[in-house]
């Protein structure tokens, strides 16, 4: 079976050019992703809907002393280990 080199070269070129179809690098030539800034718009919309939200639980008071203690623990490498939280139970059930 004889395969023409031009066909192989054409297939390789077509395959290589599929990587050029990305629009990620087109921002510099005037293209902008349609989803650009969507997080900001969603946050702004939430603020417009309810600019002063009321929550079920009050926000816990923070203290500068607690923050300073945490910074000192960080600097002295004595950070409190967080509790281990299990998210799944792997095992056989009967």
TrEMBL record:
PROSITE patterns: PROKAR_LIPOPROTEIN. It comes from the Bacteria. This is Uncharacterized protein. Residues 74-87 have a biased composition (Basic and acidic residues). The lineage of its organism: Bacteria, Pseudomonadati, Pseudomonadota, Alphaproteobacteria, Sphingomonadales. It comes from Altererythrobacter lutimaris. Residues 74-94 are annotated as: Disordered.
């Amino acid at each position: 079976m004889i395969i023409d080199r031009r066909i192989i070269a054409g297939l390789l070129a077509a395959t290589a050019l599929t990587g050029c179809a990305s629009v990620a690098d087109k921002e510099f030539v005037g293209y902008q992703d349609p989803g650009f800034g969507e997080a900001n718009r969603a946050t702004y919309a939430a603020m417009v809907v309810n600019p002063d939200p009321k929550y079920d639980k009050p926000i816990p008071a923070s203290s500068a002393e607690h923050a300073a203690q945490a910074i000192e623990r960080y600097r002295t490498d004595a950070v409190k280990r967080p509790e281990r939280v299990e998210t799944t139970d792997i095992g056989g059930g009967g």
